[in-house]
Specification:
Blueprint (H helix, E strand, L loop, with lengths): L9 H7 L17 H11 L5 H5 L2 H20 L3 H14 L1 H4 L8 H20 L3 H15 L5 H14 L6 H29 L10 H6 L4 H4 L27 H18 L4 H12 L9 H8 L5 H27 L5 H16 L8 H31 L4 H12 L1
């Protein structure tokens, strides 16, 4: 990309360098383009070695910490400054956020985007206007160019938020939804049109959907101890290039992978609900049969490290009750929680349709931290009020007897 060849198939680019029978510069769209474009930008400004590029990601992570704190500040209202500092402190120490900074994956740049999206959604709620609706659509478009669940986030956050704007007419709410969706489509349009002209049959956002489905559609992923996770054995059903010379073309690989996945799913249709539940349970690290199995899988298959994965899991479990309490507190304060819950729902749908890996939960970690910060602040305030009321009460029966006399005087 940085050398001016555009978005190419990385596999054929590598193989074609040594095998003249393989076209080297075939079109590629295995992932949405934003992360590749970011790496290409680093390459163009002279940060061209992966080891050097890794030093950039902690700064991206630090930016995410600041933005998460700012977003929590905007959500919490009069307690915003304190809640924002608590949220930033959690974000800075929460392994499920910083673990992405050394993995060289798109999640690092996705975390700041989600924080900005949350700020834009609540800005739209506090100051409803077509301009703020357009801002939400623009951020959703950029998020959709980074990870594939952007459309799900649009569908799960904007309609519930508009539904709650009871002081606005239905006509205004429908127009706002159209503005948000239209701006998001406009942001996505250049990439979609670029792909339509490169692939036959046309690909839209990514050509990797079939491969994702394939890795979760075989016996190893549908049955047994790895149910709900992905399995490399699933890819054995895909023909090799010796069998199918067109397998190098991403659009052909995507179509073949989808057909194989669809056929397997239809043959095992009764198992799909169970598998979907297992996927969601694994993604949320609440899979009852093996609660710590995710740590092993994150270490061995995802290369996230054993101790970061374990401490991240324990930290996550510790945050959950505070996050639930924080959601209740916000609801009591008449602050909508649909934008944050909508992100969680979108990611849950993504996991149910593909496979349950902890990494897929990254967009939810951002609102989780915000909810938890609100909950921690509210819990501390409640404890302080309880302590103050106890101090104000008579400490002995003698004091209690004396209190009416003092009051009478």
């Amino acid at each position: 990309l940085a050398d001016g060849h555009g978005f190419v198939n990385p596999t054929t680019w590598l193989l074609g360098a040594t095998d003249p029978t393989i076209p080297q510069y075939l079109p590629g769209a295995g992932h949405p383009p934003m992360y590749s474009a970011f790496l290409g930008f680093l390459y163009r400004i002279g940060i061209d070695e992966p080891a050097a590029q890794r030093y950039v990601f902690p700064f991206i992570g630090a930016l995410g910490v600041v933005l998460i704190g700012m977003a929590a500040w905007k959500i919490a209202g009069r307690r915003g400054k304190v809640v924002g500092m608590i949220a930033a402190g959690i974000a800075a120490t929460y392994p499920m956020l910083w673990i992405n900074d050394f993995r060289y994956l798109s999640e690092s740049i996705y975390i700041p985007m989600i924080a900005v999206l949350v700020m834009c959604l609540y800005r739209f709620w506090r100051a409803p206007s077509f301009g703020n609706a357009a801002l939400v659509g623009a951020v959703l478009g950029v998020a959709g160019l980074t990870r594939g669940e952007g459309f799900f986030i649009l569908a799960c956050t904007v309609p519930p938020l508009l539904w709650g704007m009871r002081d606005r007419t239905w006509a205004w709410r429908i127009k706002s939804a159209l503005v948000t969706g239209g701006v998001m489509a406009a942001v996505l349009a250049p990439w979609i049109l670029y792909n339509v002209t490169r692939f036959d049959p046309p690909m839209l956002i990514t050509s990797g959907t079939g491969v994702v489905l394939l890795h979760g559609s075989c016996d190893e992923a549908f049955y047994g101890p790895r149910i709900g996770y992905y399995a490399f054995e699933c890819a054995e059903a895909l023909p090799t290039r010796e069998v199918d010379p067109y397998i190098h073309f991403e659009e052909e690989q995507d179509l073949v992978s989808r057909e194989i996945s669809r056929a397997y799913i239809m043959d095992n249709l009764s198992q799909v609900p169970i598998v979907a539940l297992a996927r969601v349970g694994r993604m949320w690290d609440l899979y009852p049969p093996a609660p710590l199995e995710g740590v092993e899988l994150n270490d061995t298959l995802e290369q996230r490290g054993y101790w970061p994965s374990l401490t991240g899991l324990l930290y996550y479990w510790a945050l959950l009750p505070f996050a639930v309490y924080g959601a209740v507190v916000l609801r009591r304060r008449k602050v909508p929680i649909s934008p944050l819950l909508g992100i969680a729902l979108a990611v849950t749908i993504t996991a149910a349709a593909s496979f349950g890996v902890t990494r897929y939960r990254v967009p939810v970690e951002v609102p989780l931290v915000m909810f938890a910060a609100v909950g921690i602040d509210a819990a501390i305030g409640r404890l302080r009020r309880r302590g103050a009321s106890e101090d104000a009460e008579p400490t002995s029966s003698e004091d209690a007897d004396e209190a009416p006399t003092l009051a009478a005087r």
